[in-house]
Specification:
The complex is a heterotrimer of chains A (319), B (683) and C (219). Chain A has one domain. Chain A contains eleven helices and one strand, in the order H-H-E-H-H-H-H-H-H-H-H-H. Chain A has helices at 3-38, 48-58, 69-88, 104-124, 128-159, 164-173, 181-198, 216-219, 225-250, 261-287, 297-317, and one strand at 62-64. Chain B has 683 residues and is mainly α. Among the domains of chain B are: 274-422 and 431-560, no CATH class; 598-658, no CATH class. In chain B, the strands form three sheets. Chain B has a two-stranded antiparallel ribbon. Chain B has a two-stranded antiparallel sheet with strand order 3-4. The radius of gyration of chain B is 26 Å and the shape is globular. Chain C is an all-alpha fold. Chain C has eight helices and no strands. The radius of gyration of chain C is 18 Å and the shape is globular. The chains are: A mainly alpha (319), B mainly alpha (683), C mainly alpha (219). The interface between A and B is large, with 91 and 91 residues.
């Protein structure tokens, strides 16, 4: 790549990060607003999460006594991993500044890194809530790993590579493959993965304050001020990243394959539109779902594992 | 005088002279000398390893040294990588041992005894000669030496705990059963191939009948698999590794089990020259079961060292998955994939050695500082022992296979090898189509459970508040222990960001094995790992740099937006509940409870609940005691019947000895007659 | 002497050795058995002497002298002393009765002939053709060891075994090095001395030297 292209690619990555960072709270706000309206409430408005973040940034940050550097560093690690992923996942363009960072296995692992950081922070608080949240979160994450990796496997068979840019470019090149059995099964499995990783209903209720039902909320109970803002922003970004990832893997139309400014603009617009649509659909579905008991979640995850396994088998036998 | 000459001479001379010196010097000097000798022997191993990896073949013969034949040594690239591995672990463990085996004031440390201190260098030396052995006799002799020295070391603390004797018995029994299997397999191989040197075996392997080759392979798999800790011959691992002194645990867990893998690769892929597909499938299956069972047991273990021991079984299972899959693809003719998978297995052996050493040395530091191995009683060590916590964290990151740790790199290569087994348009055989997705699923579940395990080990053991006074009064380890851990952690870090450093050497290793010769999978790697023959690249260095840059960016922006006022320390909120005490914290048992429930059918934990009411009224409870035990269900299913059968044979055979001298003489006479008749008839 | 004469003499001596071995199995009288053993010792010494003359080997002369002293004089003397101490006169009720013993002896001799076929084929000569005798005596000695009750009979069986080995050695390879011969002879002497003590002890403890009495020692 020429120097000019590298600069453009880096700029494109920076644009991606800006879009995701700024758009994620609005996505969360949109989803909450849709839920509120459907439940017959007025709702706080689409921009409420942004207002909340601004408020939190000005509030005092506290640290419970007895916690260590892990508690303080975890929000940073979470947010850093989210920002890193926003830069490397091909949301707007498939042209990457550097090679070797957008492998799907690596992306999934960095997401896991963020989860682990928060779980350790939960344990560090030394409270029962933090510990319970951490224990439930790692159980869910452990059980969803096989589904993720098998779904990646199914997706990579078609293209012969697990690099995200290759997969997206391959789907763009031959759109009909999206409707192949392997792809559809993998899409269903991936939907469950998104729900589990982002902590949405029916796996986890993001708006609960009852300890019996908390997973993510339990781990962030002791945070305040800028730390809480970072954690909340990171959580919204993870949701946006996962939805964007799902959208780009299975419906990548609009993603630019070059660095032309017009293509990039189209890419940004299409990204926002697609993610907003999927987010709204998810919010509508959540209205009609109740949270599953924690010990029913493995059944759901086993079902998604079955779908992923079938996807792989389909890609083998119907290749 | 090549590097290998220098290295092995240092190993042999250093160990023998060192052991003698250590046996004679007074107690207070012993830790320093023993540690330095062990580290020196390790340096010799590293030198020999580097020499071997550079590709030049090296052979030495010492006729008359061993009773039944000559001692034959040969170092090629495959030996080189394992020499390097064992030597590096020995350096870290040796330096660590200087601090660990020192006596505490008013308290004699059993690990500082003459026997233990003198045996450690001998153990390392015998381990280092295993990859260098080039004839059946030499291999068996050094293998047995390794087993005997390690048994002595496992029994170091036998006066303190009865479980040590139990561990020694199981370990001694199983390692010798493994030796019998290896000996039978190799001797049968040598008899049929017409010579006992490895060259003769290689040359004669082609003339063996398929049934004979398979017999040899299965026997060797049993023997080396028992040493490596593959299921179902893993039962000695969770007993022996926790009971040994911690630097010995690190040597056994990181280096000795790798030699089991070495033996499997050497005999299966090199001497036998590969085999039919079912060999690879067998190894793959055993590896998958080991990986899953090991990590499951680790995720519910509350004894820190037992957790690490089961984690070793898990990682050896992953290595076996790589080797087995390589065998399957090599038998099918897909050499490029076989090369990738074999490289993944070797890279994982190196990575495992690095992070397992850090973890066991860290566990040893904790044990020395608190006297505790039980995670349910630890905690709060991040403030009392910050450096140990940080280094343990690096090891835990590697063991959990998360970026930027080193375990992630080898797992990525393994997954790449597995997922490229089918490409568009190429029909896959049904066997591959079923086994490979299952293997990927197993690797994934193992990775997920591994994350849970090490979040538990690190989070419960080191963070939050101490759960016992011993943990509350811990002090940081002395300097040598920190340096030893630091050496191992540094190698973790190097392997994490620059795995391409060993890439070229691994390609040379693959050239030794006929089925994957000239595949050079890691040839194009530099900053980015690029796998030859398949499309896939990942750059651990760039990912790490990216994460660091993002963190810096985020920190800067947040500081701009929110200021940098220091955080006020407040009481913990905890839902506005009562005064906080350490009893409210989650323990390791409770952390693993959801997983225990999900896998209840496999784990089948045993619960004991004791309710003590007040004397005055049976309705008022004074205290409740809850005890949970997760026994090893595979062992409980397989070993008691086996042991009962052997015991019943023993009881029956007492009837053979009825006290009459004539009968005993008759046994001998009839035996002689039968032998003579058989000889007469068959010749 | 000429080859024909020495071959005949060799065959006669070998046959006599085998005959004495069979007679030991037949006779019940312990004193007679000891006498037969002494005769066998003389015959083996004669064998060695004959081979020495044939091959002009002085070592064999020395070996013959040693065998004569040990097997024909020293050992029978010790055995007679044991016999006198024990006060027993005959071997009563062996585990396998005399008729069956003789049949077994025949079978074992045949086996010895079968076994030594390949050995003789390695280096055919007058001496090696008599090899089956040596092996037969070994087997007969072992058989006696296994089937006789009295401690003294067992010692005699052991000595017969050793005689058979010595004969085989002389016939196959013209003896073993003198040092080895010396060592083995010393071992045999020691064994007999020890067994003498054991027999005396047994008599004190059980009143007889029937080995089956030892079965009371098992748990």
């Amino acid at each position: 790549m020429s120097a000019q292209e590298t600069v453009f690619a880096v700029a494109a990555a920076g644009i991606q990060v800006a879009v995701v960072v700024m758009g994620a709270p609005y996505l969360t706000g949109l989803m909450r607003q849709v839920r509120a309206r459907m439940e017959g409430r007025a709702g706080a408005g689409v921009g409420q999460p942004v207002r909340d973040l601004r408020k939190l940034f000005h509030k005092e940050a506290t640290r419970p006594e007895g916690t260590s550097v892990v508690f303080v560093a975890a929000p940073l690690v979470m947010l850093a991993s989210a920002v890193f992923l926003a830069a490397v996942i091909p949301f707007v363009t498939t042209v990457a500044a550097v090679g070797g960072v957008s492998d799907l296995f690596a992306v999934v692992a960095v997401l896991l890194l963020g989860t682990v950081a928060l779980a350790l922070a939960g344990l560090d608080t030394g409270t029962a809530f933090g510990g319970i949240g951490a224990s439930r979160e790692v159980t869910i994450v452990a059980l969803v790993e096989p589904t993720i990796l098998l779904a990646i496997f199914a997706l990579s068979v078609r293209v012969g590579s697990s690099d995200l840019a290759d997969i997206v470019a391959g789907t763009l090149a031959s759109p009909a493959h999206v409707l192949s059995p392997a792809s559809l099964l993998a899409a269903v499995a991936f939907a469950v993965v998104i729900i589990a990783e982002a902590g949405r209903l029916p796996v986890d209720n993001p708006s609960t304050h009852l300890e019996l039902t908390m997973v993510h909320e339990a781990m962030v109970l002791e945070y305040s001020g800028r730390d809480l803002a970072m954690v909340e922003l990171a959580a919204s970004m993870r949701l946006a990243l996962l939805l964007g990832l799902g959208v780009n893997l299975f419906a990548p139309w609009g993603v630019a394959t070059t660095l032309a400014p017009l293509a990039l603009l189209l890419g940004i617009v299409m990204l926002i539109v697609k993610v907003a649509l999927v987010g709204v659909a998810l919010a509508v579905l959540e209205v009609f779902m109740a949270k599953l008991r924690l010990f029913r979640v493995p059944e759901l995850l086993a079902g998604s594992l079955l779908f992923a396994l079938l996807a792989v088998a389909a890609s083998y036998f119907l290749a | 005088m090549t590097l290998v000459d220098v290295g092995l001479a240092l190993v042999a001379g250093g160990a023998l002279a060192g052991a003698l010196v250590i046996a004679l010097i007074p107690r207070h000097v012993r830790p320093l000398i023993s540690g330095l000798v062990t580290a020196g022997v390790g340096v010799g191993g590293v030198l020999a390893g580097v020499g071997g990896l550079s590709g030049a073949a090296w052979t030495r013969v010492a006729p008359g040294l061993l009773p039944l034949g000559e001692a034959r040594l040969s170092v090629d690239a495959l030996s080189g990588v394992f020499l390097l591995l064992v030597g590096a672990v020995a350096i870290a463990a040796g330096i660590y041992g200087i601090g660990y085996t020192a006596d505490a004031p008013h308290h004699e440390n059993p690990a500082g005894s003459r026997t233990t201190q003198a045996t450690v260098p001998l153990f390392v030396a015998s381990m280092l000669f295993v990859p260098a052995a080039a004839s059946v006799t030499t291999l068996l002799v050094v293998w047995e030496l390794m087993a005997l020295t390690s048994l002595v070391l496992v029994l170091t603390e036998h006066r303190l705990r009865p479980s040590v004797r139990d561990a020694g018995l199981w370990y001694g029994g199983m390692t010798h059963a493994g030796l019998v299997a290896i000996m039978t397999g190799l001797v049968v191989f040598a008899a049929d191939a017409g010579g006992e040197t490895f060259e003769a075996l290689r040359a004669g392997a082609a003339d063996l009948s398929p049934a004979m080759r398979s017999t040899v392979f299965v026997l060797v798999l049993i023997g080396f698999g028992a040493k490596a800790g593959l299921v179902p011959l893993h039962v000695w691992l969770p007993r022996a590794h926790p009971e040994a002194p911690s630097h010995v645990s690190a040597l056994m867990s990181a280096a000795m089990v790798a030699l089991g893998i070495y033996g499997l690769i050497r005999v299966g892929f090199d001497l036998l020259g590969g085999g039919p597909r079912w060999w690879g499938l067998l190894v793959l299956t055993i590896g998958a079961v080991s990986a899953l069972f090991g990590v499951l047991q680790a995720s519910v273990a509350t004894d820190l060292k037992r957790l690490l021991a089961y984690s070793t079984t898990e990682n050896v299972g992953l290595m076996a998955i790589g080797i087995g899959a390589a065998g399957v693809f090599a038998a099918d003719g897909n050499r490029a994939l076989a090369g990738v998978l074999m490289a993944a297995a070797l890279l994982h052996a190196l990575n495992h050695a690095a992070f397992k050493t850090v973890l066991f040395l860290g566990a040893g530091s904790v044990l020395r500082a608190t006297g505790l191995r039980d995670l349910d009683a630890l905690g709060g060590l991040v403030r009392r022992m910050p450096l140990t916590t940080a280094l343990f964290g690096i090891g835990a990151l590697g063991a959990a296979a998360l970026p930027p740790g080193n375990g992630f790199v080898s797992e990525w290569v393994l997954l790449q090898g597995l997922i490229h087994s089918v490409s568009e348009g190429v029909a896959a055989s049904p066997v591959v189509a079923v086994s490979i997705p299952v293997a990927v699923g197993v690797v994934a579940l193992t990775a997920g459970l591994g994350v849970a395990t090490f979040v538990k080990a690190f989070g419960v053991g080191f963070l939050a508040q101490p759960r016992s006074t011993a943990a509350a009064t811990a002090i940081e380890s002395p300097m040598p222990m920190r340096v030893g851990m630091g050496v191992a952690a540094a190698s973790c870090a190097v392997l994490a960001v620059a795995p391409a450093l060993v890439g070229g050497s691994l390609d040379r290793v693959l050239n030794v094995l006929p089925e994957v010769r000239d595949t050079a999978p890691l040839a194009d790697s530099a900053v980015t790992l690029r796998l030859a023959g398949i499309q896939g690249s990942m750059s651990p260095l760039l990912i790490t740099v990216g994460l660091v840059l993002s963190a810096v960016l985020v920190a800067v922006v947040v500081r701009r937006l929110a200021g940098s006022a220091p955080r006020r320390v407040v009481g913990v909120w905890a839902n506005g509940g009562p005064e906080r005490n350490s009893r409210q914290e989650l323990t390791a048992t409770s952390f693993a409870e959801p997983l225990t429930r999900v896998f209840d059918d496999v784990l089948r934990p045993e619960h004991d609940i004791d309710v003590t009411p007040y004397a005055e009224s049976a309705y008022l409870i004074e205290s409740v005691t809850f005890r949970q035990r997760v026994p090893d269900r595979l062992e409980a299913a397989m070993y008691p019947p086996l042991l009962a059968t052997v015991e019943s044979w023993g009881r029956w055979s007492r009837r053979l000895a009825n006290g009459r001298v004539h009968r005993y003489l008759a046994y001998g006479f009839i035996g002689l007659l039968v032998a003579l008749i058989v000889v007469a008839v068959t010749s | 002497m000429s080859a024909a004469v020495s071959t005949q003499l060799l065959d006669v001596i070998s046959g006599a050795i085998l005959l004495t071995a069979v007679l030991t199995l037949w006779r019940r009288d312990l004193a007679a058995i000891i006498r037969l053993l002494a005769i066998q010792g003389v015959l083996i010494a004669g064998l060695a002497l004959l081979l020495g003359i044939n091959e002009h080997n002085t070592e064999l002369y020395l070996a013959a002298l040693g065998v004569l002293i040990l097997k024909a004089i020293v050992l029978p003397t010790i055995l007679r002393r044991v016999l006198a101490d024990s006060g027993e006169v005959r071997e009563t009720a062996p585990l396998v009765n005399v008729t069956s013993s003789l049949l077994a002896a025949a079978g074992l001799t045949l086996l010895a002939y079968v076994l030594s076929g390949p050995l003789v084929a390695l280096a055919p000569s007058a001496a090696t053709r008599a090899l089956p005798v040596g092996i037969a005596v070994v087997l007969l000695g072992f058989f006696m060891l296994v089937t006789r009750r009295r401690a003294l009979s067992q010692v005699i069986g052991f000595l017969l075994l050793d005689n058979g080995i010595t004969t085989t050695a002389f016939l196959a390879t013209s003896g073993v090095p003198l040092v080895v011969e010396l060592g083995v002879s010393l071992d045999v002497l020691l064994v007999v001395l020890v067994l003498q003590i054991v027999a005396a002890r047994m008599r004190m403890a059980f009143g007889s030297t029937d080995l089956d009495g030892l079965s009371g020692l098992r748990d």
